[in-house]
Design brief:
Largest sheet: 8 strands, mixed
Oligomer: single chain
Shape: elongated
Number of domains: 2
Radius of gyration: 36 Å
CATH class of the largest domain: Alpha Beta
Distance between the termini: 120 Å
CATH architecture of the largest domain: 3-Layer(aba) Sandwich
Length: 599
């Protein structure tokens, strides 16, 4: 019994000794590896990298009509340092100690995020800890900064001696700042796909194709070798003119801020082609400043009195009325079928011609004219508008653009409201397209924002102007409606955009403008239409004698007192005057001004 107990003790003792010796051997190996094989194993660790790596393609540029950059991908770099590399630790860190001061000085001078002493302390601390991926600079550096740093004596020795390497990323920048920002759009992150605007619409063309590299051992070192070259993205050339965009955006910003409005939108279109030369959107932030947040240009709203022109074109062209027909209005509201009450912003007891009714923008007159013309056949009214091309599915290249909403009214009461812009919805772009057709001898052009896809300056694909409708109405209807739009601006007695007292509104002594004002009450949730909150609009074309441009300005909820001719008409006037000066459309011969009909 005693011998068995002694043998058991010996067996446990032997097992314990064996375990202890094994543990001591492992511990000894770890100590040996850390002390004598550290550099060798660090090299092995360096080699444990993925065998294939993607090479990011550079996203293409978005250009204005003159080739100036509106959006571009610029290279930027993260700077890292692997403080473990063998060369930095040889001979008690002789190489590191010799160059640390000049490296820190160059970083302080070229990058400037920290002082020389701060950079030095940061790198020395990482060196002592043996950090493998120290981010030397807090933020990305640009191309010129990187090129300057490459002249540093330590960095010149290369990654495997200095431990310093750069990882590039392309950052999307807009050289003109907020100019047309919502239309140009944005991308997800720094290298993602298009998120909005033209960046999203032409993402496939702009994105390019990523390449592929592999890690191969060359001359005793592992190097990155390109297997498939990245194909950079194509460039998108837009119709936007950066100079005209600047004119439009500043005019809109000044007026929107002056009137303390909720938002403003302005679009400038080339009449003959439908090219959008400028498109601006301004929103008021909570702190009262303005910035570009929403592309109001393609969001539909109730157009108010700008729709009166559309209604009259339909009735005139259908032969329901004549431009010289008369209609009576009064100071008292006009009640239609005991259900719908119509009032005027400028109440008067008088008889107006159809032409004058548009000039003074009488709601009562339009409601009477349209209900008289289409009573019992409201569907025919909507179908006529469809035939004019306004409700065609028009691609304006901005993703998410709203479609026109003009439903066939269930009753004539709704029709009476539709006659002056309620119970219908159009975007500023769609309103502009219709008025541009009036300016363009009846030919309706698709609003265009892009003319070409390019590669290295060579055109790969060209987009030509597109006709939506060759003629929206007869020549007689066109002449009649143009005469009425002339009176809106130039009839000093009735015109809502004509000169009144001290305000010039849309009247200019430099360029003749014709167009239409619009005022729409805003719907306040839970309260319905408000008599104190309005949306103001003016849309017109210039020069009236031979239109070159059509422009719309819309301002949401300006502070009282508000007036569409004064607020929006004057904005279009300022844009028109500066546009004509910039484009040089006028020439002078024998002391007289003439329109320069250059190609």
């Amino acid at each position: 019994m005693y011998d068995e107990q002694r043998n058991t003790v010996w067996r446990f003792a032997i097992i314990f000794i064996a375990i202890f010796i094994g543990f001591a051997a492992v511990l000894g190996r770890i100590i040996y590896t850390q002390a004598f094989e550290r550099e060798a194993w660090l090299k092995v660790a360096e080699q444990q990298v993925p065998t294939h790596r993607p090479i990011a393609a550079t996203r293409g540029n978005i250009l204005d009509c003159n080739g100036r950059l509106l959006a571009s991908s610029m290279p930027q770099y993260y700077m890292y340092m692997d403080t473990r590399v063998e060369a930095l630790h040889q001979k008690n860190g002789q190489l590191f100690n010799r160059h640390i001061d000049t490296l820190a000085l160059d970083l302080a001078t070229i990058v400037g995020e920290h002082t020389q002493a701060e950079y030095k302390a940061r790198i020395v601390q990482a060196y002592k800890k043996g950090e493998a991926r120290l981010r030397v600079c807090d933020h990305r550096i640009n191309y010129l900064q990187r090129q300057a740093l490459l002249n540093n004596a330590l960095i010149k020795k290369g990654k495997y001696k200095s431990g310093i390497f750069f990882e590039d990323q392309h950052r999307r920048i807009k050289p003109y700042g907020i100019l047309a920002s919502r239309t140009i759009g944005s991308i997800y992150g720094e290298g993602g796909s298009g998120n909005s605007g033209l960046e999203k619409r032409f993402d496939n063309e702009l994105r390019g194709e990523d390449g592929m590299s592999s890690i191969q051992k060359i001359g005793g070192r592992y190097e990155s070798v390109t297997e498939v070259e990245a194909k950079d993205g194509l460039d998108v050339k837009t119709t936007i003119d950066a100079n005209l965009q600047d004119i439009v955006e500043n005019a809109l910003l000044d007026k929107t801020a002056e009137r303390n409005a909720k938002w403003g939108c302005c679009i400038l279109m080339e009449t003959e082609t439908g090219y959008i030369r400028a498109i601006a959107n301004i929103d008021r932030a909570e702190d009262g400043t303005y910035y570009e947040a929403v592309n109001h240009a393609v969001q539909r709203v109730e157009p108010g009195s700008t729709f009166k022109t559309i209604a009259l074109v339909a009735a005139l062209d259908d032969g329901k009325i004549d431009i010289d027909d008369t209609v009576s209005i009064s100071r008292q509201p006009w009640v239609y079928m005991r259900k719908s009450k119509h009032t005027d912003a400028h109440p008067m007891d008088t008889v107006l011609t159809v032409r004058s009714a548009l000039a003074v923008s009488s709601n009562i007159a339009l409601a009477k004219l349209i209900t008289r013309s289409y009573e019992g056949s409201a569907k025919k009214f909507v179908r006529k508008i469809e035939k004019m091309g306004l409700m065609d599915s028009v691609n304006c290249e901005i993703p998410g653009a709203d479609k026109v909403r003009i439903d066939v009214p269930k009753d004539t009461v709704t029709l009476s409201k539709m006659s002056y812009g309620y119970s219908v919805e159009l975007s500023p772009m769609q309103i502009l397209m219709f008025y541009n057709a009036i300016a363009n001898d009846g030919k309706m052009m698709r609003p265009m924002l892009v003319t070409a896809i390019q590669q290295n300056g060579e055109v790969i694909k060209r987009f030509k102007p597109e006709t939506v409708k060759s003629s929206i109405c007869s020549k007689k209807t066109l002449r009649d409606i143009r005469s009425a739009l002339h009176d809106v601006v130039w009839d000093d007695h009735l015109g809502t955009a004509a000169k009144k007292a001290w305000s010039r509104k849309a009247q200019s002594n430099i360029v003749a403008i014709a167009g239409k004002t619009g005022t729409a009450q805003l719907i306040i949730p839970g309260h319905g239409y408000s008599g104190r909150h309005h949306r103001m609009t003016f849309v017109g074309y210039f020069p009236e004698e031979n239109p070159q441009y059509t422009c719309i300005c819309m301002i949401e909820d300006p502070h009282f007192p508000y007036d569409a001719g004064m607020d929006c008409g004057s904005t279009v006037r300022m844009i028109a005057e500066k546009t004509m000066a910039y484009t040089g459309c006028y020439v002078y011969r024998n002391g007289e001004r003439h329109l320069d009909k250059r190609d």
